[in-house]
Amino acid sequence: MSRTGKSSKAGERRGTRKKLQLPEVMDLTAAAPLAQSLLTRRGSDLSIDASRVRRVGAQCLQVLLAASATWKADGVNLALEKPTEEFLAGTRLLGISFDQDMTRPESA
Amino acid sequence: MDALRQIFFQECEEQLAELETGLLEIQSGGSDPEIVNAVFRAVHSIKGGAGAFALEDLVRFAHVFETVLDEVRKGKLAASEHVLAIMLRAADVLADLVRVARDGGSVDDARIGTATDELASLSGAPAAAHGGASETEAEEEDFAFTPVAVAFPAFDEVATEPEPAVNEFTITFKPHASLYSSANEPVVLLRELERLGEMSVACDVTEVPLLTDLDAEGSYLAWTITLKTTHCEDDVRGIFEFVDGDCDLTIEGTAGVSAAGEDEIEALLRRIREEAEAPVEDAASETIAVETAVIEAAADEFSSTDEAVAAPAPVHDAKLAIVPAEPLPAAQKAEAPKADKAASGEAAQQTIRVDLDRVDRLMNLVGELVINQAMLSQRLAEAGLSRSSDFATGLDEFEQLTRDIQEGVMAIRAQPVKSVFQRMPRLVREVAAATGKKVRLVTEGEGTEVDKTVIERLADPLTHMIRNAIDHGLEKPEVRAANGKREEGLVRLSATHRSGRIVIDIADDGAGINRPRVRAIAEDKGLIPANAQLTDEEIDNLIFLPGFSTASTISDISGRGVGMDVVKRSIQALGGRVSISSRPGEGSTFTLSLPLTLAVLYGMVVTVGDQTLVVPLTSIIETLKPKPGDVHGFGGDSRVIALRNNFVPLIDVGRELGYRTQIVDPGAGVALLVESDGGAQSALLVDAIQGQRQVVIKSLEENYGRVPGIAAATILGDGRVALILDVDAVVAGARNGGLASDNLLALAG
Fold first, then answer.
1. What is the ipTM of this complex?
2. Partner of B453 at 20 to 30 A CA spacing, among B255, B361, B436, B557?
3. In contact, A26 and A55? CB cutoff 8 Å
């Protein structure tokens, strides 16, 4: 997470950047609602705010990975903002790392 | 807790079925590693559940069994005929243990002991079990996976094996969706692992699809974990103990493993995996599955199919170090069916368990709906509204909908006969062992569906008939050999749908019914007069008489005080019939013909005397108006009717059922040409036809009592009760001098 986020120019120009707050507990019950709320925001730039996350589970990360692939395929920007220590620890443990620009995820 | 127990035992039944099916599939030459996996999973799930309910015996035995299956799964033990025989016996013992755990009672300790010892001998000394026969080795190759070398021509360039470190484990872990749904979490598992030592994790995200294709509760991630630890493998495995059945897991100790000690190919594959660092697709699954993936990789790489060409990236490339985040449709397509098969939990998600009572209530309501709709139709007719009025059209649509609903509900109740058929192989094994005969059971049409109630009540008669077929039908091996037959007798169990009924054949290639002996016994027991004139068919049917038993000594197998008469009665109670065709020296076939459902039937509503009767449409071939010249007297009161250069008996239904005693003029009525058991045709004389209708069957036996010649009753649109004719009974009754005479032969035939 060393790089600073770059926001999509297109998104700024159109002013369509949306926001999504990740829930505090991202366990398996949160996966389906998360996927749903991501789907409704599809097609425009999106900032995902991870500042409240206290617990993270693999299924929610699957959803985020799917989202990052989807946003990348759509050619719009997806950013992860303010990840908590807990969020980072969870992703590190699972060997997943999200660049701040989430359309460029890498395997840890 | 009781509810949980019940679910556990229901699942056990399913797992046991899976186990038996799998073993039999392997026995008949199936070499798909997935079958072995499925069999393993079945035993493993039973063990897991049994552990939760503290069923010690079950856990202990399942564990021994599982160990052997694991050997087979890993290719260390060949599934030879000998091994399979032991495993099939073990499956029987396991089934008994489950049953005892559920219903109480006890299993013979000696049997458990023998089975345990047999199993232990397999897993304890796998080398000895191989026997060295070339056949065995050939079979083993099906489980080991040699033909992969072509997949990786670059084997020689692969890096040399890394320096073995003490207690370094490579763990591949791919959760099934069921792992998540049972509230387990990879994060927790990996955290536990991390506590054991130094860990590095690589996550395979290749299977994660686009958001639109994602099942948020599915499982797409897989991990390859390298762990350096002072703990032993058991400690590592212990972490995954509770999710063992819900994931693909391999744990390989890198330390102290030398290539000399294992299959060369396996060593090469391991090196490839290590070289690849990031997991190759499917690397997280069980060993055998990995090999399959490699073979598939070869196929993909070398085939020129469109998919392979269209694949955006070489998914299976061994050097795929950086895992692309983009989904790879071709690869997913290839994997999808396997994933379905692998995760039995996923299949279970597509079904729901519904209390049978609820379905039955629904069925009853639909029955009432049908009656109600019939009543409406009748009111409409009485009101004199034209058939073309909107009201009538609406009612037609209503009728169609009712029928659709009814079929829908019936489909819910319908189940494949497989659930009964798959109990038979075990029975055959046991009976064969007890009688010292060699028997091969062939089943056909397991997928044929029939109402659940029919299936449940089919098990006992079928069991008895198969016992009979082996015990009485098949000859001893030496007799068969002397008669130029294969020593191994054949019993064929088949099911088909035929004109709205299910027909089940139980055929053996034994000696056929010994007619002189059957006749002698019947005379001995006073069942028939000594000088009775009987056709072959009638003699065959004597075995259905109450009190008839051909075995001179009561054998363990068939002679349990239950005769074929009970079989016949239970089939009749289902609205079915049994018929026999037997050829001396060639074998016998018992044919059961049963209704698909016990709830409704399409019938022709007729008038006889002042009564309304329903004749099942399935037995009617045609209807005709007899011309006076066509009907001829035929000794006594019997009459025949000429029909296209043929004569068929004309039976006056009114007289048979006792509605009238005098002979009526056939020209005033209508004849229904019906076909009864064995294909014999008869004409039933009724007064008039009212129409065809779907009627809801209400059991007469439950509500009143059994009436000869009547199968059941129904409620008509006007609210009156109409009786449903038992065509076979009426025809048989007429042939044997009337239903009222209580002729034993009539009951039997």
1. 0.82
2. B557
3. yes
